[in-house]
Amino acid sequence: MGKRKRNKGERLVRAIVLFLILSLINNLYAFEAEVSTDPLQPVKGTEYDILFKIKGQINETPYISFTPRGTEIIEKSNESVSIKSVLINGQVKTERELTVVYKAMSDRSGSVKLSDIKVEADGEIVRLRDYSFKVGDQEVRAQDIFVQAELSKENLFLGEGVEVNFFLYSRKPILSQELKKFPQLNKFLKRFRNIQPNKEMYRIGNDTYVRYNVYSARLFPQAIDNVIIDPISLSIQYEGSSYSPFGGLGFQIRQPKSKDISSKIVKISVSPLPSQGVPPDFTGLVGKHEISFKGGREKYIANDVIEFTLEITGDGALENMSTPKLLDSELVEEFEVKSDITELPNGRAKKVFYYTYIARKNGDIPQSDISISFFDPEKQQYYSKSLTIPKIMIVGASAAGSVEQTPDIKKENSSQSKKVESPVKVGLLAPFFRIDYFDHWNLFQKQLAILLAFLVFAMSFFHYVKVERSQISSFSSELKESLDELKKQKYKHETLFKLAKHISGNNSGETVEVMIKNSALDQKSKEEFLKMLSSVDMIFASEQNNVTKPYKPSKKLLTDIAKQV
Q1: Cα distance from N-terminal residue to C-terminal residue, the chain
Q2: 145 and 268: one domain?
Q3: Which of 8, 117, 121, 283 could form a disulfide with 128 if both were Cys (CB 3.0 to 4.6 A apart)?
Q4: Per residue in 489-500, pLDDT tens?
């Protein structure tokens, strides 16, 4: 009965903690902001609007600041406010959506950039990424239906992240859409986004369109030459012109029409990172990053587990980041470092490294400072973040060996060895047995020390075997789970990435395509594996086309994967 009450109490405490965490996460960002232009591609010599949309739980008029490059701000035009109530965690909260418009004009065509964008409200500051757009020489004739790739910026450094969205624009009602071909994006590390099928009204010049987001990803260029955003191809069915099959009786029928469209290739300028002043601890990550470290206690007993957690948060391609070295000491045994990645808002991500060590020998590991370096694309310079590894004390490790004698005993033994007795004539006597209790006690200490050393060795050995078996078991279960996902056609990009790493034995963070092409799989298996990868990409648009399941692998491919792993 007591155990049942205790379990209920534990569940109640867990529920309260979970509620507090969710409430904290929900209130972490009081508002969010985004920037756009109207029309999407302004024309030089004509006025256009720069719009800031701010929504959230804000009580005061926000203050907006930014630095325009390539355009002139004429005036702050107007503000519009809409208010709605939403239910969050059982509470009704009021959200405001405020639109602030700036009138601008460019006297030349080309690229325009808004940098250092900050929105301040209610004592909070939200910093936005730089916003770039193009100004044309003359107004382009509007198309009824088209698709295009839109990037957050087009001039990048090697490894710098960029947001890419493919939008479908239409002035006619869309009946259906199907993705025929995805962009390959071979020279990028890709972080796909699962987008929701929604639409919004969008004005380009004097024309109003309905805009659909059909594909979204964050990309990190891995090469410098000939870096492009490949076209995406769609098959569209839309409402055509109306006609009357009964002459002038007024009954109209709209005839559906079909059309295949593709986006244009977008070229990206990628610059190499500066070769001067590269820190020896440079991680290869580009952008703003923060690090945090969580250690354990200071004192450990032999065979204790020592655990550290290192967390990196930022804009860069954390998938490519290798494991930093924290401890380099013969006093501890290091096990394989595990890690996981979590996507965050605004294109950022968090990677957590889990370190595990076993205390093996007596001694102190002194406090040390670790430096981790990144590259800032805005300032175009390298910068470092440092963390402190606290001092570690290890006690209680036993070592087999003999017990040393004290100086008095050594002296006594030495004098006894040098003493020579003169011969004495005696008669026949009964045998006399002398018992040296000190020698027996010394022998007992030696045996006890050897026994303790053996026990310590046996415990360490069995612990090591247990850890190794658990790792092998974990790897086997993970492999079995991955193969089951392939058989049941329930695999995702993460599944293929793990298998590709195990097949190629590569931990350098290369793309799945590169790892598979360099693996020992035969050519047919490689082609089939890449088909699985392409089909997973198509799942991201499953709610907008007819693709419901990924490619079904053959038995031969499953067998080849198992053999290679």
Answers
A1: 50
A2: yes
A3: 117
A4: 777 777 887 788
